[in-house]
# Entry
Amino acid sequence: MRTTVGIIGAGPAGLLLARLLHHAGIDSVVLESRDRAYVEQRQRAGILEQGTVDVLRAVGAGERMDREGLPHDGIELRYDRKRHRVDFPALTGGRSVMVYAQTEVCKDLIDLQLKDGGPLLFEAEALAVEGADTDTPRVRFRHEGREDVLECEYVVGCDGFWGVARRAIPVELTRVFERTYPFAWLGILADVPPSHDELVYARHDRGFALLSMRSPSVSRLYLQVPEGTEAESWDDEAIWDELERRFETDDDWSLERGPITQKSVTPMRSYVHEPMRHGRLFLAGDAAHIVPPTGAKGLNLAVGDVVTFARALTHEKETGSAERLDAYSETCLRRVWQAERFSYDMTSLLHRAPDATPFEDRMQSARLERIAGARAAETDLAEGYTGFPFG
# Structure
């Protein structure tokens, strides 16, 4: 098999890249190790930045998102039983975010790709990237019980932290930056309408809590729990009781309860791999960087990566200049590190460390009071949340 761009991974990054290249008249092949049902069902991110929303619309994947997604113009911060709303459009010149699950993004992009795009092979396991530092990189993969080779001009690894793409970069050329947090998120899906029309981020002495949603009838909520917690160690009633405590306010707001249909635990870490390019191999998304979910940046960072690559390759095809491709890693990492900073700031602002001192507790309250009382601080949060510019 031969193509211009070999894409490893059919998550939102790989699928979106295929659409961007299709619109630019550049052929590609997408290899995905899982089956279609798995890709369309795996629960991940649910907040789309303004830039991500704009890109999905531009490639023709916005119709169902605009019909079923939930536009959000702000978030609510809760601390010391107080409530403060951050108004995104007023602080950012009109930007907002969209609540639309990653599963739905993938369904939309898969439908488009199978309808008029290049090959999208499910259950095609990438085994290795070879010749990344040559003009003819190759992806060895297994599909339908036999090994095959995808010959490319470029390879883009959108295959996540455990994928094969990153392993093709020699260790002696890399630098890794990481931090593991001493807590995790216990997340639930519940068949109950959200108790607030926007996301609620709560800082409490017992730990962080987040009220989110997947639809007008399905709530997504999270609790900070100790690292290593097993989801089933919490029974349903205990989860609702703890959420109620952490969202408590001085007014008459109340948390609606309902049947919990899913529980999971998400570990918290920050990770950056530099560089994001080696020869004709380019890394995108979780293959190169991971952020704690507090800032809702994971999927959106991956979108920024593939937009940067598609623009750079289009520029090379139109002008003959590889300048933008050569600058891919540096360009992406500027945005990545700002998102890492934002996610770290949000995490340290709202989560209580196991060994937190009274001084640190007061510092968190002071930082939240600063956001609530100073437009400059509030604007910084709103700009970070709605997204940093691509490229």
